[in-house]
From TrEMBL:
It is an enzyme of class 3 (hydrolase). This is Nucleotidase. InterPro entries: 5'(3')-deoxyribonucleotidase (IPR010708), 5_3-deoxyribonucleotidase-like (IPR052419), HAD-like_sf (IPR036412), HAD_sf (IPR023214), Nucleotidase_putative (IPR009206). Keywords: Hydrolase. Pfam families: NT5C. Its EC number is 3.1.3.-. It comes from the Bacteria. Belongs to the 5'(3')-deoxyribonucleotidase family.
Length: 196
């Protein structure tokens, strides 16, 4: 039986642990645009950049390694995660493909970001992985994932505020604005009572 306040925390990587705006300069460079992060009103950047899904998939295939290597840390994510490591179980569940494991691990090492599990599932559908790891809580930036996980697993989701995830949120999904705020909420577990 796990200690009273130990949580299994599911954590997305891109846009959650990494700075959500980090993809924009690389996309601008590749597609000759001058968009700002604030212009990214949709998670699907093919829509934002007015390119085909195939063109975006091809771009990500060619530039994913650079993107994952160069992305800065989102706020104080590294410090918060280091503080959590000895108390909670940190399970990163990412849509990154398994072939990006080395660049991901090198990035984690560079920023001294600890982990217990790293599950690169190659898909935005994180439900099966979240079930497999039996997460108590999930940190995410993609609205569709937040809605699916909260509804199907009936767990709290902390959704990092971005231009592309605006909208009305159900009871178990809580919009957060910083890693400091996330840290405060986790320390105040159970979060369900805070979200009401």
């Amino acid at each position: 039986m796990k200690p009273e306040r130990t949580l299994i925390i599911g954590i997305d990587i891109d846009g959650t642990v990494t700075e959500p705006s980090s993809i924009v300069p690389l996309m601008n460079e590749s597609f000759g645009k001058h968009l700002r992060y604030e212009d990214c009103f949709a998670y699907n950047l093919a829509t934002v950049y007015n390119i085909t899904e195939e063109a975006f998939a091809d771009w990500l295939d060619k530039n994913g390694e650079r993107l994952y290597d160069e992305a800065p840390v989102h706020g104080t994510a590294d410090a918060v995660l280091r503080n959590w490591y000895h108390q909670h179980r940190l399970v990163y569940i990412s849509a990154r493909e398994a072939r990006h494991r080395d660049v991901t691990l090198n990035w984690f090492s560079r920023y001294q970001i600890p982990y217990h599990e790293l599950d690169l599932i190659g898909s935005h559908d994180k439900l099966a992985a979240a079930r497999k790891w039996r997460v108590d809580l999930f940190l995410e930036d993609r609205l569709e994932n937040a809605l699916q996980l909260s509804e199907d697993l009936e767990i709290p989701i902390l959704l990092f505020d971005t231009p592309y995830n605006q909208g009305t949120l159900p009871e178990l999904v809580h919009r957060v604005y910083s890693w400091e705020q996330v840290d405060t909420l986790v320390k105040s577990w159970p979060i369900k009572h805070i979200l009401r």
